[in-house]
Amino acid sequence: DFQLTQSPSFLSASVGDRVTITCRASQGINSYLAWYQQKPGKAPKLLIYDASTLQSGVPSRFSGSGSGTEFTLTINSLQPEDFATYYCQQLNSYPRAFGQGTRLEIK
Amino acid sequence: DVQLVESGGGLVQPGGSLRLSCAASGFTFSDQFMDWVRQAPGKGLEWVGRIRNKANRYTTEYAASVKDRFTISRDDSKNSVYLQVNSLKIEDTAVYYCAKDGAFRGLNYWGQGTLVTVSS
After folding, report:
1. What are the pLDDT digits (tens) for B3-58?
2. Which of B46, B63, B113 lies closest to A43 in CB terms?
3. Can you tell me the distance from the alpha carbon of A8 to that of A2, in angstroms, rounded to the nearest whole number?
4. Are B48 and B35 contacting, i.e. CB atoms less than 8 angstroms apart?
5. DSSP readout, B82-113?
6. Chain A partners of B50 at a C-beta cutoff of 8 Å?
7. Residue A1 has what pLDDT?
8. In chain B, N or C: fewer CB atoms in 10 Å?
9. Cβ contacts of B72 on chain A, cutoff 8 Å
10. HSE value, Cβ hemisphere, 13 Å, CA-based, for B64
11. Which residues pair with residue B22 across a beta bridge?
């Protein structure tokens, strides 16, 4: 079965820090990977698609990279509003699975 | 502005059924593919399924966990997409979101979600 594995599951960081979240696919998915941010009680918000393309309106401190089976989401200079849960999603095949999520909390 | 508004959630007994609706505005609905995603309380996101547009014959795809129990449909004249959920199980308890599908560009707009609670 196809697996999409995010790491870490939990991340504690301070305002101004740089953090990186990894998403690994059990088989190659080209660059068909998206990243989402979700805050408590809210719907997810698309941040990045095609592994590295920033969705319109998303701050440039967010960036994505990778292709094939390994992908990263990097947030430079963390802002208070960035503390949330982040999910990756593969868009290459069905089912269009999500990673299990990474909860980013303030240290 | 793009808006997606879900409705139809509620409390239902195991084995029961519900029809969730998602009303769309602010874009050409008939051109778009639409997805449903759910989130159990305190858990992560789970992709439920997708419906394509008329040009793609309204074909659908489903997660294995819901296939044969859930059905996605749409009415382009009403700018709405639906999720018929049958034979509900306790583990189907979740917030159900509809989302505008940008194909390989991800789910670019989401509704606020509607809560389905399956309990006796």
Report:
1. 999 999 999 999 999 999 999 999 999 999 999 999 999 999 999 999 999 999 99
2. B113
3. 19
4. yes
5. EEEE-S--GGG-EEEEEEEE-GGG-EEEE---
6. 96
7. 76
8. N
9. none
10. 5
11. B6, B81
